[in-house]
């Protein structure tokens, strides 16, 4: 079996587990689905929140210099004109001339083995013509053209050019538009950061690879405002912080790679960008980005909105428009990296076992509590007592009395529960329970008072 097949099998196994066990479902599935959208079930939302809360704690709460904001998703259309999104937030599109199905030209070419970085639309059309590249349906392709990925809508009852707005394609602009507000309210020393988590929408030409490329997703972004003189040191510091973050997620360091984006592929205003890539089961792909954006965004706002974006260094007459370092994290790609690192198969007592080796602090359920037999009221009552104690203390505790104990273990393994607590007849005598550890399957007796 080829490596690619093995990897895709792993991806399929994760997608199927995610659905079966209540992590992630296809969006609008009962109505036949809506491509590029995903719904989170009870365990998925718990895992996602744990990731987002960990991020918020690490980058906002635990730091003195980062402030949180939560901007509206709908923004004045001028935001997206000034930022360049209306003009240039595009992907290269080709059409199957027979079926009219549309594809991302760079993805088709890459899949056909061509190097696509830095190619213009014309270059891609030429490559397609010269090599007779066909659509995945085997049909001829159109010329390559641009496709704007923003979802357009209108705000209010009148539909005209002035009421046009967009679902934000990134959270970053909601940060930049609040830079002046926060400086006026708090006057933080430089460097300081503004952080935001929230939904972003991109009308991806071909969403694919599970939640990796979807049309509605969530971002966690920081704009870190700095004195331009210090940009290199500040950038390097963020490289270290990104690695601390991937460590905190339990991602193996050897699967996280830094890709220095070459000048030709960087935005014109960026002096340095690193894409952090991860070895997903679908291959090595971008997990998050770290970019030095200079003063591009604040300059745009100052010019287009006519508002002063300068920062006056406290106690001096020195003023300048701060530059920014932007770490931009995608929640879904993070979740997919966490799930694929955690997915493990082994053998227990000669039987194949699937379990999620999730770090304890991310696991959607930390403890599952079971009475050994569910038809013995005295065991159930005692187990309920233990459950109440743990639930009060940890919150994410599950009551599980379905099937026999072996089945419960297998189910809890599959959702990554680190500890199963079982109440048996001895518990009634000695007030101790059996705790079974997920990764080792080891069982220990522990006093209830020590749980
Ligand atoms: P790609 O090149 O893979 O399309 P990008 O470079 O356009 O990604 P950015 O604009 O840098 O992505 O967005 C920052 C982060 O947001 C990405 O690193 C990724 O984690 C996440 N992201 C972007 N597009 C999507 C998407 N369609 N689905 C899920 N996550 C996304």
Account of the 3D structure:
By secondary structure, the chain is of the alpha+beta class. It is built from 14 helices and 23 strands. It has two domains: 3-77 and 180-339, BirA Bifunctional Protein, domain 2 (2-Layer Sandwich); 365-450, 3-Layer(aba) Sandwich (Rossmann fold), CATH 3.40.50.800. Helices cover 34% and strands 28% of the residues. Strands 3-9-10-16-13-12-11 form a seven-stranded mixed β-sheet. It has a five-stranded mixed β-sheet with strand order 20-19-21-22-23, with helices on both faces. Strands 5-4-6 form a three-stranded antiparallel β-sheet. α2 crosses α11. It is globular, with a radius of gyration of 26 Å. The model has no long low-confidence stretch (mean pLDDT 95). Bound molecules: adenosine-5'-triphosphate. Adenosine-5'-triphosphate binds at residues 202, 204, 213-214, 217, 219, 286, 288-289, 328, 330, 332-333. Adenosine-5'-triphosphate binds next to β10, β13, β16 and α11.
Helix-strand layout with pairing:
Layout: H1 3-20, E1 24-26, E2 38-40, H2 42-61, E3 66-68, H3 77-82, H4 85-88, E4 90-95, E5 102-104, H5 105-111, H6 121-131, E6 145-148, E7 151-154, E8 164-167, H7 172-176, H8 179-186, E9 192-201, E10 216-226, H9 231-248, E11 256-260, E12 272-280, E13 283-294, H10 296-305, E14 311-312, E15 319-320, E16 323-330, H11 331-342, E17 343-348, E18 351-356, E19 367-371, H12 377-394, E20 397-399, H13 405-415, E21 419-423, H14 425-430, E22 432-437, E23 443-447
Helix pairs in contact: 2-11
């Amino acid at each position: 079996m080829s490596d690619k097949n093995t990897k895709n099998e792993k991806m399929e196994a994760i997608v199927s587990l995610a659905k079966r066990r209540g992590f992630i479902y296809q969006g609008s599935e009962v109505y036949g689905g809506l491509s590029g959208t995903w719904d989170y079930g009870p365990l998925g939302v718990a895992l996602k929140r744990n990731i987002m809360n960990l991020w918020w704690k690490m980058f906002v709460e635990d730091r003195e210099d980062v402030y949180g904001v939560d901007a509206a998703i709908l923004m004045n259309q001028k935001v997206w004109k000034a930022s360049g999104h209306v003009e240039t937030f595009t992907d290269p599109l080709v059409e199957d001339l027979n079926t009219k199905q549309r594809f991302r030209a760079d993805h088709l070419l890459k899949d056909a083995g061509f190097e696509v970085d830095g190619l213009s639309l014309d270059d891609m059309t030429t490559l397609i013509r010269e090599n007779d590249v066909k659509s995945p349906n085997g049909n001829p392709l159109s010329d390559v053209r641009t496709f704007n990925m923003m979802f357009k809508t209108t705000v209010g009852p009148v539909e005209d050019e002035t009421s046009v707005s967009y679902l934000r394609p990134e959270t970053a602009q909601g940060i930049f538009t609040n830079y002046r507000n926060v400086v006026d309210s708090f006057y933080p020393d430089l460097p300081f950061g503004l952080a935001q988590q929230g939904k972003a929408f991109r009308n991806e030409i071909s969403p694919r690879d599970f939640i990796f490329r979807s049309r509605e997703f969530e971002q966690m972004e920081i704009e870190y405002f700095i004195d331009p003189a210090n940009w290199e040191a500040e950038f390097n510091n963020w490289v270290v912080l990104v690695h601390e973050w991937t460590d905190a997620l339990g991602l193996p360091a050897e699967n996280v790679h830094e890709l220095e984006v070459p000048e030709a592929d960087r935005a014109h205003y960026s002096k340095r960008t690193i894409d952090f890539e991860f070895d997903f089961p679908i291959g090595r792909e971008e997990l998050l980005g770290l970019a030095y954006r200079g003063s591009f965004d604040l300059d745009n706002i100052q010019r287009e909105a006519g508002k002063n974006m300068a920062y006056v260094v406290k106690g001096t007459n020195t003023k300048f428009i701060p530059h920014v370092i932007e770490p931009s994290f995608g929640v879904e790609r993070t979740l997919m990296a966490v799930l694929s690192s955690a997915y493990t198969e082994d053998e227990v007592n000669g039987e194949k076992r699937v379990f999620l080796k999730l770090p304890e602090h991310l696991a959607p359920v930390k403890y599952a509590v079971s009475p050994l037999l569910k038809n013995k009221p005295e065991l159930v009552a005692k187990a309920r007592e233990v459950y109440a104690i743990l639930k009060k203390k940890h919150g994410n505790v599950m009551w599980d009395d379905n099937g026999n104990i072996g089945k419960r273990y297998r189910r809890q393994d599959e959702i990554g529960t680190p500890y199963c607590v079982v109440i048996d007849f001895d518990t009634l005598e000695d007030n101790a329970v059996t705790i079974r550890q997920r990764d080792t399957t080891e069982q220990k007796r522990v006093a209830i008072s020590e749980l």
